[in-house]
Amino acid sequence: QVHLVESGGGLVQAGGSLRLACTASGRSISNYAMAWFRGAPGEGRLFVASINYEGTYAIYRDSVKGRFTISRVNAENTIYLQMENLRSEDTALYYCAIDTNSRWTTRNDGNYDYWGQGTQVTVSS
User: Which of 13, 29, 71, 74 to pair with 96, CA 20 to 30 A apart?
Assistant: First the structure.
């Protein structure tokens, strides 16, 4: 069992920055891929970014490339999402997730078996 808790969301003006964090408990994350997704409550979750188990490789959805950076500190059992130049269309509930069956990145939400409750990001234009 893995428990994930996101933090760092908030209200920011367009063009601003936020840094999200996701801390895990119950198991070390060091052998597993992790990811960030976003969406509205009750709706489907869109892939944002994924990072491999050691933090050496990451993939992103096209609309956030060059603006968002996913990273991890395994010793802290935490991953991060640094978001720059935020746009109104980035407004969403942001979730982190872990794939305890793989070390490698994937965009497929079905591969991730534990999820956090989400942190709200609101970008005002």
Answer: 13
pLDDT in tens, 72-101: 999 999 999 999 999 999 999 999 999 999
DSSP state of 45: P
Q: Are 68 and 92 in contact (CB under 8 A)?
A: no
- Give the CA-trace dihedral at 9, 118, 2, 67, to 10 degrees: -60
Q: How far apart are CA 78 and CA 71, in angstroms?
A: 9
With 80 as the cut, is the pLDDT of residue 6 above it? yes
Which has the higher per-residue pLDDT, 42 or 29?
A: 29
Phi, psi of 123 (to 5 degrees): -110, 120
DSSP-assigned beta bridge partners for residue 24: 4
